[in-house]
Amino acid sequence: MCGIVGYVGPAMPSNRPLEVAMEGLARMEYRGYDSAGVALVAPMGLVSAKKAGKLANLRGVLEASPLPEATVAIGHTRWATHGGPTDANAHPHLSEDGKLAVIHNGIIENFAPLRAELAAAGVTFTSETDTEVVAHLLAREYNAARDLTQAMLTVTRRLEGAYTLLAIHADAPGSVVGARRNSPLVIGLGDGENFLGSDVAAFISHTKDALEMGQDQVVTITADDVRVVDADGNPAEGRRFTVDWDADAAVKGGYATFMDKEIHDQPKAVADTLLGRTDTAGNLVLDELRIDETILRSVDKIIVVACGTAAYAGHVAKYAIEHWCRIPVEVELAHEFRYRDPVVSEKTLVVAISQSGETMDTIMAVRHAREQGAKVLAIVNTHGSTIPRESDAVLYTHAGPEVAVASTKAFLAQITACYLLGLYLAQLRGNKYPDEVAGYLEELAALPAKIQHILDNEEEVRAVARAMKDATSVLFLGRHVGYPVALEGALKLKELAYIHAEGFAAGELKHGPIALIEDGQPVFFIVPTPRRPLLHSKVVSNIQEVRARGAKTLVIAEEGDEAVTPYADVIFRVPRTPTLMMPLVTVVPLQIFAAELAGAKGYDVDQPRNLAKSVTVE
Ligand code: M6R
């Protein structure tokens, strides 16, 4: 959700605080783009600017009315929760005397009584946000204690909900104070300057040295010092880490959109996720899995918890892990998990999949699983994020930063990591012989080149997408691992092109969805390899069934699969790939199709309406 950046530099005022804040916001705009704002402490006092709409609007404001040189800055890019995306509701929010500014990510659940209390005390509110109550509460505490850290500690004790807060005060020109509960905040360690950010993207071009913050901690940064305390004000330790990607990884690199770039990053994302996973004897080793082998051997059920695209990766994993390990796998949308009284024991392995590592629904599922005694293994892309910290073990995907709101390379990396997990368990539990595991790893290693082959021929998909820009509804059908791919294809089209799109298991067609078929209805089919004849023939029959009713069939099929040719209006070919690994290739044309069609409609492919990259509220 919202993106937050904080900066403290040398005592001599300069333009750097504003530059750092604006650059950080540009890198984090994917987290929310309803409005943006900054506040600085300058020699003349606290100054701020904010504007509804994308960051470009704030830039326009700053060009028309430049802000003075300063020593500290905070910046915010918003995904609206309380109050619409207006100038007044944009952050920062100021105290009544205009000396204190605060920015916030999350939701203050008890803001209504706090607001009523402040209003009764005579405070005038200028926005509809939950955040503004924090500005007024902090100002009162600061005026009493003259200590911003102490004020933050006192105020956060009164807040319920999830939040990251940053505050600055005109009378404290050398510090920014931050706090977090159930919402991300990372510290960037510089030389004579320090940073705060919702994620490392906020400061990646200035430092790669970072410090994770724990739950309910408060941090005070100055130019030369970083002080973290717990909720009682006692000194606390953070975990230091080095960011393993460059600022260059989070730029478009010559592509028109981040999504385009990230689609093209996919061969590398898969290859990097596979890198260094075998020992000298060729055995699969997952060093990061800190769960005792005895426990992993005794696992009798796996539950995958995740949301959106990550959940579809889990759905693909189910087919592979059950087949390789003979362990039952359930896939549960994380936001449904804890509300249905799931059957979880100490023999259950819960696998939490998340690109951001900050999805609140998934975090809550992780907590619930651990409370029930399960071990939790996180498959996450973002170092320093909450989910790995709250899990028993983590298997990092190495997709690099994913900026576009629509997930692409993270999806492929998540599937790859799930395959590694499945093979590791199969090896550990003796379901597969070492040479079998080695064979699967070889097949996986061949995948990046196959994905690249599809990308080299992408224009074919793009041309079809452009020609279909006026479609109002598109269906996606698949069986077996093609089913989650169908769901993912539909999700991509919905979120990017705002077109009604549905994914179905192809076998379900005759149980209802076939009623949707009318003349010209576009239907994508994800066709399994003909080397699984039974499965393949069923899908070919489904293609015939919808074609007979007037549908336009767009078929994703393996090279050399001629059985589909008579029934396909359009065929997108993918290289020959083992059945279980087909999602890594069959989803790629669907990603390209959705991105191109959305672009042809003139939509913002990287920042689709109403969405944000990481969903840090439940
Ligand atoms: O960061 P996460 O992987 O936990 O995010 C989960 C979903 O919010 C995410 O995959 C979402 O569905 C994407 N916008 C899909 O493109």
Report on the structure:
This protein has 618 residues and is α/β, with parallel strands linked by helices. It has an 8-stranded antiparallel sheet, covered by helices on one side. A 6-stranded antiparallel sheet has the order 5-6-7-8-12-13, covered by helices on one side. A 5-stranded parallel sheet has the order 16-15-17-18-19, with helices on both faces. It is globular, with a radius of gyration of 25 Å. The relative contact order is 0.09. The mean pLDDT is 94. The protein binds 5-amino-5-deoxy-1-O-phosphono-D-mannitol (M6R). 5-amino-5-deoxy-1-O-phosphono-D-mannitol (M6R) binds at residues 307-310, 354-356, 359, 362, 405-407, 491, 495, 614-615.
Estimate the global geometry from the Cα principal axes: globular
* Main sheet properties: 8 strands, antiparallel
Helix count? Answer: 19
> Strand arrangement, largest sheet?
3-2-4-1-10-9-11-14
Report the CATH superfamily of the largest domain: Aminohydrolase, N-terminal nucleophile (Ntn) domain
Q: How far apart lie the N and C ends?
A: 11 Å
How many runs of DSSP E, i.e. beta strands?
A: 24
Helix content: 25-40%
CATH architecture annotation of the largest domain:
4-Layer Sandwich
Q: Average pLDDT across residues?
A: 94
Quote the beta fraction.
15-25%
What integer value in Å does the Rg equal?
25 Å
Structural class: alpha/beta
Low-confidence stretches: none
